[in-house]
Design brief:
The complex is a heterodimer of chains A (371) and B (624). Chain A is mostly helical and 371 residues long. Chain A has 21 helices and two strands. The longest helix of chain B has 73 residues. The chains are: A mainly alpha (371), B mainly alpha (624).
């Protein structure tokens, strides 16, 4: 293998990092041992074939010729090629410019046989990413100042909340929620600070004054909450009560639609903070959020819809945030009439890994359609 | 101050007063119900009981009781705080468990840790088996050594018995010849010879334990007895020897000619098993460390799950991607990708402004100056968009000094509490308006303390992603910052940053790295060349001790890197020894030598990349 190892290293170093990670893993070693044993081929010879395949830029015709010269049992050469490609290269197919799947089929192989190899590859990458995440968190812990973060969150809640709530991009709400939930978990007294900061918010929703205890007041966040409490009491309330307030209160009705949308979020923040953690009861904990977040599914669907050129009523697919999902009952008009839409979502489902967030969100939508 | 979420009720006044008691009750009810885990401390139990009791009261009494409970809890301030803090803590723990079980961080993580634990147990069993095995081999070797001794004793007895038999025969023959007058020479001469033979016979008798004047019958009996013993012992030794070695031998001579080699072979076996046990011990220890690291990682992820699970998860953990998106290959199956996200990708409130500004900067980086100016002053756009446009113009040097001053003051005023935006602004101002940046002014102030603090701040900004290295173009700043950065992050992470720079910037970065140890490590990693350490072989050894697989791959995939390895071997006096080993085909010994140096990686030839690296080094050393 004079020089081949050098060329192999040069080639693999020029490919995406994922390929290097995979071929340096213990898992890959075990797969090589497995192939070596099954086809009665020396491990060193197998490695040479692997090196040659890399060096020859994944030329399958050359691979086939080499195997014919090196494999004792010529009858099993097609099976060998399939296993060689399926177990060793199919997992990294998207990272090397070669159609592995197509070639396995060409040699009469069954792609499904190699699903586990792909899953193992994903697990390997997941582990590496978790390692990277672990390193990142170590760095974060060294530099993270809880007091400073608490100050930043309080500042948002008191002075800069409306911009976040009005933004179509949910990342602001998600970031603040991340810190909020972390601090509520880990820092004593932060709930007090957040509720106080929120209660002092003087940002305005609407332009007309509102009446509280027969006095006209600025339509500030702080005053709107007092207005809500005046109308609904200070106990925990359902989203039905919220919906009623938003759709029947005279002063709320004078707000524009987008202002009313912001007010709805404000009242929810009031509930989520004031009654925390009861306000999160019954929700999967990873879905806890103080600031309601509009999920991104609509955007994903929009993108996919363009590809499929299907017309699905946007409104019918809009996704409510999970806090609302939990509390509004019955959900009402969520059924989709079009079979196309049903099929479209089913089709989309196949495009995402079973454990991905997208998969779960689409699955939820399908479940809603069934109701 | 009231507790937790009850604060807002007081702030709101009026009916909100009711919340004080009720909120507390619910908070505690969740602690004992939905989030119930583990034992409670007495204070908490007392609080819970108080609340449980109050919950059973009629509506008319509820408010009073609630106030009483809240009041009594407040009096026991320390315990109360603990009780309230307890619930969110448990909520956090529950969150982590849920996050793990729902698979957000990979459903397989915990399962894999369990599998790894089982693997370690298997390895321990293997090691224990070897330990038992080594006892058996040692026992066999001891038996062979004993056997060797016994063979010598039997041979000795055989020689002595043969000698006695021969001495007696010689004596008896001459005695008979003298008696018959058939002896050679004169009678005196014959009697003289008989006297000598008699003395020989006496010595031979004594040698086998007889009296020197033992009778002929006694002598004959001894010879017969010894021969029988020797035969019996020989049979027994042949049996023992075959039992230990598995070889078929015909007698003592065979044993004698083989046993020396057999003992040496057992010694080799012992050395080999000891080596294997030692290697397995190292392996097991490494596995335990790895598992421990994973457990700690899991705990850390658990603790910080809220800043990962929201919008950040895609950027940090990544999800499946359609194959066609990366390789241009038509395959629908998704694959996970490696992610090297920075702190900026985490869902932290403190990242919000800088992330949004960063996002808009990326979006508009190729826009013309006119468009950016329009955006900078368009107040219908968000503050983030306007700030992004301003910063890009600052980076391009397209603002007048007056404009830059006004705009930077505005940004500082808007985001005064946001240190990350401040770093971002400093980074944008650095190239063309350095006098307006506090941190870069401090960096070049010439005052060591001020400059060191500024270095820290800038490096922190680079690590968190708010300051981009590609935005720092002046060599003087790079000269001060890069060595500090090299000492802060790993060579691998430094290389990631370096690889993302333009050729020109890479040159500047390399020349900024001075002769500090961490800088040399970074240079060696960037270039895949130990030559940066000069003749300092100890520094090279240290680098190799800590190097990762990718660093070894870089070193062994270029002639320059391989030559630098060869030079290091030469400097440490190992080159000739290793080349000799290679010439003799002792590649395992070479691997061992290499693994003795590399603490971070233990190479094994079952791994494709490991084999590639080791073979590449071997080939180069053999060739030159």
């Amino acid at each position: 293998m004079e020089n081949k190892s050098l060329q192999f290293l040069q080639k693999i170093n020029s490919l995406p990092e994922e390929v290097f990670v995979y071929f340096s893993s213990n898992y890959n070693s075990l797969v090589c041992d497995e192939i070596s044993e099954e086809y009665k081929i020396e491990r060193e010879t197998l490695d040479e074939i692997i090196y040659d395949f890399f060096i020859a830029n994944f030329d399958i015709d050359l691979l086939s010729k080499e195997i014919n010269t090196k494999l004792k049992d010529k009858k099993s050469s097609s099976n060998f090629i399939n296993d060689f490609l399926g177990k060793l290269f199919l997992p990294v197919e998207p990272f090397i410019n070669i159609e592995i799947e197509k070639n396995i089929k060409k040699y009469g192989g069954d792609i499904k046989k190699y699903n586990k190899n792909i899953q193992d590859f994903d697990s390997l990458i997941e582990e590496k990413n978790l390692d990277n995440l672990g390193d990142l968190l170590i760095d974060l812990e060294e530099n993270f100042d809880e007091n400073e973060e608490e100050g930043v969150v309080s500042n948002f809640l008191e002075k800069n909340l409306l911009e976040i709530l009005k933004d179509d991009d949910p990342s602001g709400s998600q970031r603040i929620n991340g810190s909020l939930v972390y601090l509520l978990k880990n820092k004593k007294g932060s709930l007090d600070k957040f509720t106080k900061a929120f209660s002092l918010n003087q940002e305005l929703i609407g332009s007309q004054k509102i009446s509280i205890n027969n006095k006209n007041q600025d339509p500030s966040v702080s005053n709107w909450i007092k207005h809500f409490i005046k109308a609904n009491g200070s106990e925990m309330f359902s989203t039905i009560a919220l919906a009623k307030y938003l759709t029947s209160d005279k002063e709320v009705l004078s707000l524009k639609d987008d202002e009313r949308k912001v007010l709805r979020k404000i009242i929810k923040i009031y509930r989520n903070l004031s009654f925390f953690p009861e306000s999160m009861e019954g929700l999967p904990v990873e879905s806890w959020e103080i600031i309601p977040v509009d999920k991104d599914l609509e955007k994903v669907i929009e993108k996919e819809r363009e590809k499929f050129s299907l017309s699905v009523d946007k409104k019918k697919l809009a996704v409510e945030d999970q806090v609302e999902t939990k509390n509004i009952s019955p959900r009402g008009s969520k059924k989709i009439d079009s079979d196309d839409s049903w099929q479209f979502l089913q089709g989309m489902l196949k495009k995402y890994p079973e454990k991905s967030l997208e998969y779960k969100a689409i699955e939820d939508e399908i479940a809603k359609m069934k109701k | 101050m009231l507790l937790g979420g009850l604060m807002i009720a007081q702030e709101m006044g009026g009916m909100a007063g009711k919340v004080a008691g009720k909120g507390m009750a619910k908070l505690q009810a969740m602690g004992s119900g939905a989030l119930k885990t583990g034992k409670r401390v007495t204070g908490i139990e007392r609080a819970e009981n108080a609340i449980k009791s109050y919950k059973q009261q009629k509506e008319s009494k509820r408010q009073d009781l609630a106030q009483r409970d809240a009041g009594s809890l407040l009096k026991a301030e320390g315990k109360t705080k603990k009780a309230v803090a307890y619930i969110p803590q448990k909520a956090g723990s529950a969150m982590g468990n849920l996050v793990r079980s729902t698979g957000v961080f990979g459903s397989g993580t915990d399962k894999r840790m369990k599998e790894q634990e089982a693997e370690i147990k298997k390895k321990e069993q293997g090691r224990d088996f070897l330990k038992e095995n080594i006892g058996g081999v040692q026992g066999d070797k001891d038996k062979l050594v004993r056997l060797e001794g016994e063979v010598k004793m039997v041979e000795d007895l055989k020689n002595k018995t043969d000698n006695l038999e021969s001495a007696q025969t010689n004596y008896k023959n001459l005695e008979r010849d003298i008696y018959n007058g058939t002896h050679s020479g004169t009678k005196e001469e014959a009697e003289e010879r008989l006297n000598v033979l008699g003395q020989n016979l006496e010595r031979a008798k004594v040698a086998v334990g007889l009296e020197k004047n033992a009778t002929d019958d006694e002598t004959l009996e001894k010879i017969t007895e010894n021969k029988s013993d020797i035969q019996e012992k020989e049979t027994s030794l042949v049996g023992d020897y075959s039992g230990i070695t598995g070889k078929n031998v015909s007698g003592l001579a065979d044993i004698k000619s083989n046993i020396g080699q057999d003992i040496t072979a057992k010694d080799d076996e012992l050395t080999s098993i000891s080596g294997e046990i030692e290697s397995q011990e190292v392996d097991i220890e490494k596995d335990y460390k790895d598992l421990d690291k994973k457990r700690k990682r899991s705990e850390k992820v658990n603790k910080w799950s809220s800043v990962i699970t929201g919008g950040a998860i895609g950027a940090i953990i990544g999800g499946g991607i359609p194959g066609a998106l990366i390789g241009g290959v038509a395959g629908g199956v998704g694959r996970k990708r490696l992610k090297h996200a920075g702190e900026g990708a985490l869902d932290l409130a403190s990242n919000h402004n800088s992330s949004q500004i960063g996002k808009y900067k990326d979006k508009i980086k190729d826009e013309k100056d006119e468009k950016l100016r329009e955006n900078m002053n368009n107040y219908s756009l968000s503050g983030h968009e306007r700030t992004a446009a301003t910063m890009v113009l600052m980076e391009r040097g397209e603002l007048s000094s007056g404009e830059a001053k006004t705009k930077s003051d505005q940004i500082r005023d808007t985001y005064k509490n946001d240190s990350k935006v401040m770093s971002q602004l400093d980074g944008a101002l650095n190239n063309n308006y350095q006098n307006m940046t506090q941190v870069f002014s401090d960096l070049h102030s010439g005052e060591p303390e001020k400059s060191a603090k500024a270095e820290d701040k800038i490096v922190k900004g680079i690590v968190s992603g708010t300051i981009k290295v590609d935005g720092i173009n002046d060599q003087a700043s790079l000269d001060l910052i890069m060595p500090k950065l090299a000492g802060t992050i790993t060579p691998k992470n430094f290389k990631n940053i370096y690889d993302n720079q333009t050729v020109e910037k890479r040159g500047k970065i390399k020349s900024s790295l001075n002769k500090t140890n961490s800088s040399l490590h970074v240079l060696a990693s960037i270039d895949g060349d130990l030559g940066h350490f000069g003749a300092d072989s100890a520094a090279k050894t240290k680098y190799l001790e800590g190097a990762g697989l990718d660093q070894f791959s870089d070193l062994s995939s270029s002639v320059k890197g391989l030559e630098s390895i060869k030079n290091w071997l030469n400097e440490t006096g190992k080159l000739t020894k290793i080349q000799n080993m290679l010439n003799q085909g002792k590649t395992d010994a070479v691997l061992k030598e290499l693994n003795n140096v590399t603490k971070n990686i233990q190479f094994n030839k079952q791994n494709n990349i490991h084999r590639g690296i080791v073979t590449s080094i071997e080939n180069y050393l053999k060739r030159t």
